[in-house]
Amino acid sequence: MGIGRSGQTKCGICNKEIKDFKYVAMPQWNISEYLCGVCYSQKLTEYYIKREVKGK
Ligand SMILES: [Zn+2]
Predict the structure, then answer these.
(1) What pLDDT, in 10s, does the model give residues 10-31?
(2) 12/39 Cα distance (integer angstroms)
(3) Where along the chain do its domains lie?
(4) What pTM was computed for the model?
(5) Torsion sign across C-alpha atoms 37, 40, 44, 45
(6) What's the gap in Å between 56 CA and the centre of ligand 1?
(7) Residue 47 near residue 54 (C-beta atoms within 8 A)
(8) Helix (H/G/I), strand (E/B), else coil: 48
(9) Å from CA of 1 to ligand 1 middle
């Protein structure tokens, strides 16, 4: 039911259908799917916070 219908992209994190802009995850995140804007910015923030903590 509904599976395999093209034209629908789901976010790789929250699994919601992405209706607006699809964000491509960074290779470092190990996510092969597209992300919605909310999850993308969340991930991005997480990623940079982690990097700052780790660095030096
Ligand atoms: Zn999402």
Answers:
(1) 999 999 999 989 999 999 999 9
(2) 9
(3) 9-56
(4) 0.75
(5) positive
(6) 31
(7) no
(8) helix
(9) 22
